[in-house]
Amino acid sequence: MPTNLPPEYFAAEVRYRAAETTEEQITTLEELLGTIPKHKGTDKLRANFRQRLAKLKEAAQAHKRTGKQLSVFHIDREGAGQVAVVGPTNVGKSALVAALTHATPEVAANPYTTWVPTPGMMPVENIQIQLIDTPPLTREHVEPELLALMRRADLLLLMIDLQSNPIQQLEETLAILAEHRIVPRRGPEDDPDQPRVTFLPLLVVVNKDDDARLDEDFEILQELLEAEWPLLPVSVTTGRNLERLKQVIFERLDIIRVYSKPPGKEPDFGTPFVLRKGGTVEEFAGKIHQDFLAKLKSVRVWGTAVYDGQMVGRDHTLHDGDVVELRL
């Protein structure tokens, strides 16, 4: 059903998108709501804006109670890693987060549905990884707090649409990031001494590769980009390659799972400790309890590069799936 929005709506929308503080967002959003005519065609749009307004007011009230500036763009870190899903409008970011987590971001065919970030927890085997749906990156306005959110992330998923100018979408998004000193990390050598530059791991997710008939389009895209970026084709609509995406995210985060084995008991494989790749026994002990760092007497490890129950030192490097027994 058509919404038949008046010209005042679009002017108010521009002011809302340009608002920088929570208070300005509340004021401009209330103004925006006032321009929307009330009929069945606008019910969903008005409900969406009212929900956003409620979240903004909740953040403002929290600020008054605590005296601290709380932003809707500040997402507390949870799980084994924090991954920001970024990109232009209408490429499927919200649908991806909804498909992989229990989060319920607004999903719609019309552009600019997402105005505030929405986090959700994605299960990958026996760990949880946090995905954050973000507002679209556009040249018209880049929210400074969105840039700060991305800089805090462990990984960026840059999402593009295979069926709608994917190269242009990729190049424009990368250019916007570069203008704001956010640069994809290609390897250790990509960390020169550049002031105020944030290097982040990046994976390009190519959405709408819905079936085998579109694989040729993806292959052409790969050839045109000359393997310049790591690409992964998926379809949020059909679920194609979403399980593979979860595994690739785990790999790109450069983390390992290590299991604790109390002396004389079986290891607990349900709740692993998560370390960065290259993590040592000492780092693992510190995650369990600080007492282990001071009082640790012996360590046995089952897993990679050791024989079962091998005695190792504090500086022993652990691997994904290792089982560790600490003795005081």
List the helices and strands and how they pair.
Elements: H1 7-18, H2 22-34, H3 43-66, E1 82-86, H4 93-100, E2 118-124, E3 127-133, H5 144-152, E4 155-161, H6 166-179, E5 182-184, E6 198-200, E7 202-207, H7 215-225, E8 231-233, H8 242-252, E9 255-260, E10 273-276, H9 281-288, H10 290-295, E11 298-302, E12 310-311, E13 323-327
Parallel strand pairs: 1-3, 1-4, 4-7, 5-6, 7-8, 9-13
Antiparallel strand pairs: 2-3, 9-10, 11-12, 11-13
Helix pairs in contact: 1-2, 2-3
Can you put this structure into words, describing what you see?
This protein is α/β, with parallel strands linked by helices. Helix content is 35%, strand content 19%. It folds into three domains: 7-66, no CATH class; 82-252, 3-Layer(aba) Sandwich (Rossmann fold); 255-327, Beta-grasp domain (Ubiquitin-like (UB roll)), CATH 3.10.20.30. The protein has helices at residues 7-18, 22-34, 43-66, 93-100, 144-152, 166-179, 215-225, 242-252, 281-288, 290-295; strands at 82-86, 118-124, 127-133, 155-161, 182-184, 198-200, 202-207, 231-233, 255-260, 273-276, 298-302, 310-311, 323-327. Strands 2-3-1-4-7-8 form a six-stranded mixed β-sheet, sandwiched between helices. A five-stranded mixed β-sheet has the order 10-9-13-11-12. A two-stranded parallel sheet has the order 5-6. The protein is globular and about 75 Å long.
